[in-house]
Amino acid sequence: MTPPEAPKDGSATTGETPPAASSCLNVIKVRKDFVAASRARRQGTKSMMVQARKRREGEPHDPKAVRVGFTCSKKVGNAVARNRAKRRMREAARAILPQKGHAGWDYVLIGRAEVTAARPFEDLKRDLIYALKKLHENRT
Questions:
Q1: pLDDT at residue 2 is higher than 50
Q2: By Cβ atoms counted within 10 A, which residue in 19, 55, 75, 116 is the most buried?
Q3: Where do the structural domains in the chain lie, given as residue ranges?
Q4: Which stretches of sequence are listed as region Disordered (predicted)?
């Protein structure tokens, strides 16, 4: 069975992006960016911890980009469990951040032991939406 985004007649050319491909995320990979996010706002949910920070003027990244990083400690489990949790958070971020994330912000999603990998995916997405709403509401 072919995936829904693939043409049924097989007319796709090599290297052509399927029309239903999810948006690519601008991923945080440098430790100093993770550390900077760890000093900023944070919001816990049942399935993950979300850290968020607004990037400052003059940082070498695209000021309109939404960047995201993923991490899981060894408390989450072995490498298989950590990678599964990160994959699920990555898919939730792909689904939610293009609409709910703010331009010029960095987000770090941290997996929780036994919960992130087992929680239903729709609940995982709702948790991320809730965390973003709380992180971006006006704080007085």
A1: no
A2: 116
A3: 26-136
A4: 1-23, 38-65
